[in-house]
Specification:
The protein is mainly β. Helices cover 0% and strands 44% of the residues. It has no helices and 39 strands. The strands form nine sheets. Strands 1, 30, 31, 32, 33, 36, 37, 38 and 39 form a nine-stranded antiparallel beta sheet that branches. Strand 23 and strand 24 form a beta hairpin.
Length: 502
């Protein structure tokens, strides 16, 4: 069937994405015996994200190459043995513009690093930073003293300690332990961010036996930390904390999780004064970890949780960009006693996928964000208003993205043949299946002569494929005009519609 030559142009004012679906578990390895930690980073310099793991029963720090940039991972490559490995992190510690690896291991109380010797993922021997982190459990890198190199921060549970180590020369030579606190009772998690708006990095901690979420001010920007400032000690068994701007006011709020109470968040007044806002969800059973990322591509930060007692990885939509959260949306219930989650675009399609480390099944796995991916997804279109005042828009001359479609007035004035999405200079971005009927049969086509047929009653939402265009989900659309071979004519049955998710 040949496409007609007439076309309808539609002006799109703004795009609000809303994705709510992840693909099935894709196992990277089941050889991480007692998997504790997962991290994603480009270790071999090929501009895609590889994966790191720390596993406690086999004492391994290991990595897995993203062989095609699409999330196909090669076999486990051992970096080092670390006694009861609990945490792994990637950072450029020696200033040579490739990513090295940090580890924490509780069995030998050790914080260590491993040089990426060639930028291709060949790692040198263990370089010990400290052996005085009793029950070393978490490690990260950040510039705490403002000298433009990366220092190391570590937390340990047996001595209730949070400490940092200065990168003294920018080349990976680390100074002695500098204690931040020893009263984080059974330390679990840290997060590093500028919490008080003074342009240096402060630190958050979660500690389980005193139920505390607390923070520590970097008082001089040079790594001198003030006393523990308790944000809350009310809920039971604080497991996790993560700094994130949930309400769009450009300061760092915090996401917290408790083993027995689920996850919640606290707003920041910009100066480090935190106010409890809400429990996002009490559904997670045995919360182990919670992080934030823009899961649905709408420009605000959503929440992601890992709960071990129900083996669940889930996310929660920030519905208004102000910290109002929707219900739990399950990503997976197959990660057996999941310990940690990490958000990253592992398949290169410009959306946020989720990685998980699960302890009982020894797995490092990932879950594809399928709605905002090139593989396509579903959406629904709903008529939300009366016919609009018709006017004409042509590709390349309007502001904002323009959706152009061909229209066959002979068959049915409410039948459209979608062709492509154009940007403001008239360049085709991708085919888009986006029909606009008030009722009747929809004929949809992606630059082929094989239409897809739908029949929709008036006012009824209908599902359509939405390939690689999740940035348009949620946008209000209005069919405003018709162009034929460059000549603008009016379309009298123009409609107001909304693209949404289901």
């Amino acid at each position: 069937m040949k496409l007609p030559q007439a076309g309808v142009a539609l002006l799109c004012a703004s795009a609000v994405a809303a994705a709510d679906d992840f693909g099935p578990e894709q196992v990277i390895t089941n050889l991480a015996d007692g998997a504790f930690s997962v991290h994603a980073a480009d270790l071999d310099g090929d501009l895609d994200l590889d994966v790191l793991s720390a596993s406690g029963f086999d004492d391994k720090i290991a990595w897995y190459e993203n062989t095609d940039g699409l999330g196909t991972y090669g076999p486990q490559q051992l970096i080092a043995f670390a006694d009861n490995a609990t945490s792994v992190w990637a950072a450029d510690l020696d200033g040579d513009l490739d990513l090295d690896v940090l580890s924490a291991s509780s069995g030998d109380d050790t914080i260590a690093w491993y040089e990426n010797t060639d930028g291709l993922g060949t790692f040198g021997p263990k370089q010990v930073i400290s052996t005085s982190a009793d029950g070393a459990f978490s490690v990260q890198a950040a510039d705490l003293d403002g000298d433009l190199d990366l220092d190391v921060v570590a937390g340990s549970f047996n001595d209730d300690k949070l400490a940092w180590y200065e990168n003294t020369n920018g080349l990976g030579s680390f100074g002695s332990e500098q204690v931040i606190t020893t009263i984080a009772d059974f330390f679990q998690t840290m997060s590093i961010a500028d919490l008080d708006g003074d342009l240096d990095l402060d630190i958050l901690s979660a500690s389980a036996l005193d139920d505390k979420i607390a923070w520590y001010e970097n008082t001089d920007g040079a790594g001198t930390f003030g006393p523990q400032q308790v944000i809350t000690a009310v809920l039971d068994i604080a497991q996790t904390v993560f700094a994130v701007d949930f309400d769009g006011d450009l300061d760092k709020d915090l996401l917290a999780g408790w083993f027995n109470n689920g996850i919640g968040w606290f707003s920041n007044d910009g100066s480090g004064n935190f106010t409890f806002q809400s429990l996002i969800s009490t559904v997670p059973l045995g919360t182990e970890n919670a992080i934030a990322a823009d899961v649905d591509g709408d420009g605000d930060m959503d929440a992601i949780s890992a709960s071990g007692n129900d083996d669940t990885v889930a996310w929660y939509e920030n519905t208004d960009g102000l910290g109002t959260f929707g219900p739990q949306q399950v990503i997976s219930t197959t990660a057996d006693f999941v310990q940690l989650v990490f958000a990253a675009d592992v398949d290169g399609d410009l959306d946020v996928d989720v990685l998980a480390a699960s302890f009982n099944d020894d797995e490092i796995s990932w879950f594809e964000n399928v709605l905002c991916s090139a593989s396509g997804a579903s959406a629904e279109v709903v008529r939300v208003g009366a016919p609009a005042n018709p006017s004409a828009f042509l590709p390349g001359v309007t502001t904002g993205p323009v959706i152009c479609e061909t229209w066959d007035p002979v068959i049915d004035h409410t039948t459209f043949f979608p062709t492509a999405v154009f940007d403001t200079v008239g360049l085709a971005l991708a085919p888009l299946n986006l029909p606009f009927p008030p009722a009747g049969t929809i004929l949809c086509d992606f630059f082929s002569f094989n239409p897809i047929l739908f029949t929709v009653a008036a006012g009824t939402p209908f599902a359509i494929p939405f390939p690689n265009q999740c940035n348009l989900v949620g946008v209000s659309l209005c069919s405003q005009g018709l162009s034929t071979d460059g000549f603008a004519v009016l379309l009298t049955n123009a409609l107001d519609l909304t693209v949404g998710t289901f």
